[in-house]
Amino acid sequence: MVSLAILSVMLGALIQSAGTSASNAGRLRDRAIAEWVASNRMAEFHLSPTFPATGSTKGDAEMFGITWFWKAIVQKVEDDDLRRVDIEVRRIEDDDNPVFQLAGFVSHPRLNVRNFAGTEQ
């Protein structure tokens, strides 16, 4: 009888541990996908032929069959040829807590146009 009680406690702890591991794996998967969404959006800022206007924009992106919602906040910095870009990615559009946040800087496109000799065109 005592061994059955011990076994039931051990099985309960094992099931709880497995459930926690599965939950953590899901969160890690979501974080990795949200990071890709944010990185893709940042790459779009870098590759854009126009300098980003200050303010915020929202959008969505589908990745791995899931619709992700992103918000980009563009701010001026001391250097007029740079903008700070903060990107937040969520699974639920109005969620207060983003799954992933990315911060970076985007330079003015005229600084990126160079020919093969390395001089501006």
List the helices and strands and how they pair.
Layout: H1 2-47, E1 55-63, E2 66-76, E3 82-90, E4 100-107
Antiparallel strand pairs: 1-2, 2-3, 3-4
Can you give a write-up of this model?
The model has no long low-confidence stretch (mean pLDDT 85). The protein contains one helix and four strands. The protein has one helix at 2-47, and strands at residues 55-63, 66-76, 82-90, 100-107. The relative contact order is 0.15. The chain has a single domain, classed as GSPII I/J protein-like (Pantoate--beta-alanine Ligase, Chain: A,domain 2), CATH 3.30.1300.30. The N and C termini lie far apart (85 Å).
Overall radius of gyration: 23 Å
Would you identify the regions where 5 or more consecutive residues have pLDDT less than 50? none
Task: Classify the helix fraction into a percent range.
Answer: 25-40%
The number of E-state strands comes to 4
Mean pLDDT across all amino acids? 85
CATH T-level topology? Pantoate--beta-alanine Ligase, Chain: A,domain 2
How far is the first residue's CA from the last residue's CA? 85 Å
Query: Which strand-content bin applies to the residues?
Result: 25-35%
Within CATH, the superfamily carries the name GSPII I/J protein-like
CATH C-level class is: Alpha Beta
Strand order of the largest sheet: 1-2-3-4
Overall tally of domains: 1
Overall morphology: rod-shaped
Helical/strand content category:
alpha+beta
Tally of helical runs: 1
Largest sheet: 4 strands, antiparallel
Order of helices and strands: HEEEE
Which CATH architecture?
2-Layer Sandwich
